Amino acid sequence: MANPVVPGRWRDLDKLLLRPGNLVGPNFEPGPELREDLQEYAKVLVVGAGGLGCELLKDLALSGFRNLDVIDMDRIEVSNLNRQFLFRLQDVGKPKAEVAAMRVMERVSGVNIVPHFCRIEDKDIEFYNDFNIIALGLDSIEARSYINAVACSFLEYDSEDNPVEETIKPMVDGGTEGFKGHARVIMPGITPCFECTIWLFPPQVKFPLCTLAETPRTAAHCIEYAHLIKWDEVHSGETFDADDPEHMQWVYSEALKRAELFGISGVTYSVTQGVVKNIIPAIASTNAIISAACALEALKIATGCSKTLSNYLTYNGLAGLHTKVTEFVKDTDCLVCGPGVLVELDTSITLQKFIVLLGEHPHLLLSKPSVTHRGKNLYMQAPAVLEEMTRPNLQQPLFNLMGKVPKDVIHVNGSTVTNGKKNSCLRKLRVVFKGIVDGVTDMDTAGGA
Q: Of residues 210, 305, 337, 425, which has the active-site annotation?
């Protein structure tokens, strides 16, 4: 049963929303209506219901947000219980999103949380467009890139390459690793998106197979040898399941034998799990601190009660405490959030003619380009098998190939010549078809009905 409404429950929130200040946003108008609007109209999607996601749900609910959704594809494991505080031993095996939503609604009256037990890719694009803010509590670079691309897909630019304000989908991204963490605000078209600063993340460590097989030097080498090489030798045809305790125990035992053979220490069952499943170490206190920063930024975005973070906060509690804010600069040529090159076309132009125009366009001058639209290959120059498969598209109108939409983004990969040197390059184009209004041509409307 939900807790009853406590008098003065929103006292601290009202201190932010009922009074003017020197750091407020440009459109901030203090008053009780602001809290009412926040609770009634603001919709936030929390992506991830793990250590950081549990904290985010709790913090957002206690900050006045009442309409929340959470999406997560995982089920609860025993190893989650030391830091994912919404879960109990009896919850093991249940979907994280469903249990997290239930627990927060039990403790915070008035909040409504809709859980989604599925992969983020299982939802169509319009699902994400229903939310005012997307809060990320993820531990995967690939998942962040996907949500970033989805949010940026709603972004539109005007004829002067300025982002259209109502198409901006704000994101708040948090991440933790041990005693370190970050919180960032992403306003597509204004601040750097995730892809603009992808270089901030170190590449995933990969070990050469020759090192694993011949000269292991660390516990991780021994574990990966058992996982990647020994398993296939002994269990030919059987797929390794990282979530099967018996499979993991076998890898641990084999890794321990190899470590003893080469005089290497440090192989434990928990380390084996971490290496095989690429588990990022997590600490509850770090999750709580980063979640608090993310929830505060979400509140700022929704109400304008203060200027938002500019735009990347880092936290380090490893030795003492150190935190700082860095303002990164947006990459104007970003293929995800950048405006791209505006190209206006007739609906009758074929893909083949469009490719010719790419070589004549003064801002492109691309030769032998390949063309993709929403991940689908419209025409590929190579390899030969893909060229043959996509060749029939050359005679089709580009308007038809792009789904008969009035405007959309496509990517072209070709080569340019600079200072006599040939360079490969990838370009983003904003294609606008002339005479199209909401997918209906002038000719269609002229015919009447």
A: 210
